[in-house]
Amino acid sequence: MSLRTNLATRPFYNERAVQGAIVVAALLVCAATIINVWQLVALTRRDRALGAETATADARGRTLRQQTVKARSGLDGERLTAVADAVREANAVIDGRTFSWTELLNWLEATLPPDVRIASITPHVDTDGRFIVAFRVEGESVDSIDAFLSALEATGRFQELLVRRERETDEGTIEATAEGFYRTTPAPAASAAGGAR
88 in a domain, yes or no? Predict the structure, then answer.
């Protein structure tokens, strides 16, 4: 048995298609390489710029920290206390100017029963900046004074009204000293009730 082979036969009949595919693949590889190199250069530049910005920010942070240490070391505790006291006093004066006697007296008049009278009123501001109103009232009975205090709280302007002292006078009336918080603006739930006043 003998093998017949023709060594003159060419294995690829279309060499141009293969060469064209190789050229296209080589062009694609070259284009991808150029794009990668361009991105690498751009990212390197950006990294250098960010590094310079970081170094500048770090230097500025160090400078600010040093200035803060200097400023804190130059502060005098007694001076700070004096300034805080002055600010507190100024705020109290401002709060006192925003207090309306007319509005307070209108609320008291609108809720005052016929058998209760007000002997004195003393408003002041507590350490939290809230208005406290202390007043001395005289009434025919404890129930009438309680009704007056309940009517005041129902307005939404007065909160936590408490009788601090209570005694019977020589005339047979009840004298009570009450105290509570007074809101210069109405409580949200009571604004409608205030409009109906």
Answer: no
Domain extent, residue 165, equals 100-196
For residue 170, the Cα-to-chain-centroid distance in whole angstroms is 55
Q: Which residues are CB-neighbours of 181 under 8 A, at least 6 positions away?
A: 130, 131, 132, 133, 158, 159, 160
Instruction: Give tens-digit pLDDT for 110-128.
Output: 888 888 888 888 888 777 7
- Is there a single domain that holds both residue 178 and residue 121? yes
Angle at 136 between CA 134 and CA 139, to 5 degrees: 140
- DSSP strand E in the chain: where? 116-125, 131-139, 158-168, 174-182
Q: Residue 184 gets which letter from DSSP?
A: S
CA distance 142 to 120: 18
- Report the pLDDT averaged over residues 12-16: 66
Does 93 map to a domain? no
Residue 74 identity (one-letter amino acid): G
d(CA 151, CA 111): 6
**Domain tally, the chain:** 2
92 assigned to some structural domain: no
DSSP 3-state assignment of 111?
helix
Q: Is the pTM of this model over 0.70?
A: no
Burial of 152 (0-12, 13-18, 19+ CB in 10 A): buried
Residues 189, 148, single domain; the answer is: yes
- Determine the average pLDDT of the residues in 126-143: 85
